[in-house]
Amino acid sequence: MLRSSIKYTTNLKTFSKSTIKCYSTEVSEENLLKTPLFDSHVALGATMVPFAGYSMPVLYKDQTHIQSHNWTRKNCGIFDVSHMLQHKINGPNTTKFLEKITPTDFHALKPYQNHLSVLLNKNGGVIDDTIITKHADDSFYIVTNAGCREKDIAFIKEELKNFPGGEQINHENFDGTLLAIQGPKSQEILSKFTTSNLKDLYFGNSRFIDLQGFNTDEKFHVSRGGYTGEDGFEISIPNNKVGVEFFNALLEYDEIVKPIGLAARDSLRLEAGMCLYGHELNDDVTPIEASLNWLVSKSRRGDSSTANFNGASKIIEQINNPKSVSYKRVGLTSKGPSPRHGNKIFSAEDPSKQVGIVCSGSPSPSAGGNVAQVFLDKPYNKTGTKVKVEIRGKLRDAEVAKMPFYPTSYYKSP
């Protein structure tokens, strides 16, 4: 297992570099970007912090992290995700191009279906994770991470340059208000502002809807899903005037709606077993090592005519020969001090032997105790395995657990 331990040491350095590159907080206050909702956050008494080059709300006045977390699980939380990078890409052979840089079968998607995917480098490592929505044949809407903005744009531009017919594909980025409306009462609140029947809009699907009461005939792209494990929607509003007015109008229903910041967004996604780029994912980690085999469409696991995406040979070998994968992303539970990003994990039988590393961890308001996502060597990554986590210079007991740590509540088609 020595080679794997070396790998973990390398990954720890890589995580640090990825985090700095994609989510650096080392930006002077005057150089931080602001979302269209910045003034609204300040007016609401938000604590603003540097995140991915933006000034973002981490908590709001009169709310603790745990209160914000639990509110979203029981009611409706509104998250400003306008810092995310939005793309439109279309033109001849756009589908083939996306199937070159991701392992997803976009031919199989119906119009207005979306899919979680990953942008892949030549070695099968993850450039970024992304949600890609098919609007029509060769026409797509994409959302990628804010902190990877420059890297993603450069990657797509370079891939288009080297793709046959890439000059005919139109790729553009756009900014605007992007809101995540999350929680069991999300449909109730969004339905107050639109004539669209949201009862037949299911998880993984999207459409354009009207917004009533904002003096506009525009329609706005809304998808059912999110980053919390709860039912919810993400709505893109390029018209920032409407976006700000809509955000403020949502908050008037304060008996069921509250603005929620980055602190709860992270603990919610962690309980749901969702990855965060720079922690569970980076340029050196393949989807298989990240336990995201399902992102590689089954129709794309054949010969070179279908498995023709970046890094396909390595990824398909890992799928077909699981023994070639020395470590995997798994869940971990514990009591006491919480595991955190970068903490080393050791064998319970031989505490001198490092067998993994923590990608991210947090106390769990919903499940109790602590939860973490980690990379663990085989065979230590089996559910129920006891391990030790080094926290503040001491080895603490932990156990490998299944994810998600808290049941998801997606609104799926019957």
Automatic annotation (TrEMBL):
It is an enzyme of class 2 (transferase). Its EC number is 2.1.2.10. One of its GO terms (biological process) is glycine catabolic process. It catalyses: N(6)-[(R)-S(8)-aminomethyldihydrolipoyl]-L-lysyl-[protein] + (6S)-5,6,7,8-tetrahydrofolate = N(6)-[(R)-dihydrolipoyl]-L-lysyl-[protein] + (6R)-5,10-methylene-5,6,7,8-tetrahydrofolate + NH4(+). One of its GO terms (cellular component) is mitochondrion. Keywords: Aminotransferase, Mitochondrion, Transferase, Transit peptide. It is found in: Mitochondrion. Substrate binds at residue 234. Gene3D superfamilies: Aminomethyltransferase beta-barrel domains (3.30.70.1400), Aminomethyltransferase fragment (4.10.1250.10), Probable tRNA modification gtpase trme, domain 1 (3.30.1360.120). Residues 328-406 form the Aminomethyltransferase C-terminal domain. GO terms for molecular function: aminomethyltransferase activity; transaminase activity. Coiled coil: none annotated. The keyword Transit peptide applies. Residues 37-298 form the GCVT N-terminal domain. The glycine cleavage system is composed of four proteins: P, T, L and H. Belongs to the GcvT family. The glycine cleavage system catalyzes the degradation of glycine. This is Aminomethyltransferase.
